[in-house]
């Protein structure tokens, strides 16, 4: 019998104040005091996209965090204090004279394990593709024996990118986002579909309420590999926890053979 592989995830759904890193850090600290409870399982917390500044793109030169040093230090302190991982949630970072929408992966020792620079940048509403540079590689990491990945918001519209994570063994995919309230049906449908087609868990944490003049939908949730919603948040400030058992993922993949039976030689059009 295969040994159980499980962890606990926490959905840190907070309203992001536009352009105010100090206030947003205070909100994260308040969330931890209000919602966090210790558990026996490895615990992974996920924050919204650009939780530190929101899409304050007109102030990027002023706000961008050099090498994400300030935000990394902040999350490292919380990780050590509470004994948890931070496995998603991006910040406005500056590196090598360029700006990035960067997700940070921090372990319970307060160590920055890896990071992810958003690959697919939004060309509408926020027009971040005119401000940020895009990343070039997926973000995969080992969390106490569980293979995990992290992506950001607009990435969910690119199934070929997400399939790369599955092909590299991801058992859980963490998604941070700033998705508008008017489009929440699309958000939930796409993320559940990715869970089903890739046979892994998806954990999506969204901004909520107004950030500037844009209303974000909250509704953070966890989907199983069969598309079942295991837990979900309301449309405003909220926090939920859920246990995720990845024990049988590889066994189920081997049974259905959805990766083994691919015919890559017929898929040339997707890389044009």
Attribute tags:
16 strands; four-stranded mixed sheet; 272 residues; six-stranded mixed sheet; alpha/beta; globular
Descriptive report:
This protein starts with 5 loop residues before the first strand and ends in a 16-residue tail after the last helix. The longest helix is centred in the N-terminal third of the chain and has 15 residues, at 21-35. It contains 6 helices and 16 strands. The protein has helices spanning 21-35, 60-63, 69-82, 159-167, 184-198, 249-256; strands at 6-13, 43-46, 65-66, 85-88, 90-95, 98-106, 112-117, 139-143, 146-152, 172-177, 201-206, 208-211, 214-217, 221-223, 229-232, 238-245. The model has no long low-confidence stretch (mean pLDDT 97). 24% of the residues lie in helices and 32% in strands. The chain has a 6-stranded mixed β-sheet with strand order 8-9-10-11-14-15. The protein has a 4-stranded mixed β-sheet with strand order 4-2-1-16, covered by helices on one side. A hairpin with a 5-residue loop joins strand 14 (221-223) and strand 15 (229-232). The protein is an alpha/beta fold.
Architecture blueprint of SSEs:
Layout: E1 6-13, H1 21-35, E2 43-46, H2 60-63, E3 65-66, H3 69-82, E4 85-88, E5 90-95, E6 98-106, E7 112-117, E8 139-143, E9 146-152, H4 159-167, E10 172-177, H5 184-198, E11 201-206, E12 208-211, E13 214-217, E14 221-223, E15 229-232, E16 238-245, H6 249-256
Parallel strand pairs: 1-2, 2-4, 3-5, 9-10, 10-11
Antiparallel strand pairs: 1-16, 5-6, 6-7, 8-9, 11-14, 12-13, 14-15
Major sheet description: 6 strands, mixed
Helix content: 10-25%
What string, H for helix and E for strand, traces the elements in order?
Answer: EHEHEHEEEEEEHEHEEEEEEH
How does the helix and strand content classify structurally? alpha/beta
Radius of gyration: 18 Å
Number of helices: 6
Strand arrangement in the largest pleated sheet: 8-9-10-11-14-15
Strand portion? 25-35%
Overall, the morphology is globular
Terminal CA distance reads 44 Å
Work out the number of β strands.
16
Let me know the average pLDDT.
97
Poorly predicted ranges: none
């Amino acid at each position: 019998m295969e040994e159980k592989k499980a962890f606990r995830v926490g959905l840190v759904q907070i309203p992001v104040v536009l352009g105010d890193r100090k206030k947003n850090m205070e909100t994260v600290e308040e969330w931890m005091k209000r919602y966090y409870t210790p558990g026996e399982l490895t615990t992974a917390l996920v924050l919204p996209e650009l939780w530190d500044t929101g899409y304050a793109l007109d102030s990027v030169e002023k706000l961008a965090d050099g090498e994400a040093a300030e935000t990394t230090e902040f999350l490292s302190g919380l990780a050590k204090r509470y004994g948890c991982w931070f496995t998603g949630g991006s910040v406005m970072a500056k590196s090598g004279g360029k700006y990035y929408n960067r997700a940070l992966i921090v372990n319970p020792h307060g160590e920055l394990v890896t990071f992810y620079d958003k690959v697919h940048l939004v060309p509408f509403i926020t027009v971040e593709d005119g401000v940020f540079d895009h990343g070039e590689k997926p973000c995969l990491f080992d969390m106490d024996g569980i293979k995990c990945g992290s992506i950001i918001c607009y990435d969910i519209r690119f199934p070929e990118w997400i399939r790369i994570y599955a092909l590299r063994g991801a058992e859980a995919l963490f998604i941070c986002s700033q998705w508008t309230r008017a489009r929440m049906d699309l958000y939930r449908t796409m993320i559940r579909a990715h869970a089903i087609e890739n046979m892994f868990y998806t954990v999506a944490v969204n901004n909520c309420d107004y950030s500037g003049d844009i209303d974000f939908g909250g509704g953070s949730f966890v989907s199983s590999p069969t598309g079942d919603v295991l837990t979900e948040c309301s449309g405003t400030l909220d926090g939920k926890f859920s246990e995720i058992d990845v024990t049988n993922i590889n066994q189920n993949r081997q049974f259905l053979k959805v990766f083994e039976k691919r015919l890559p030689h017929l898929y040339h059009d997707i890389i044009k």
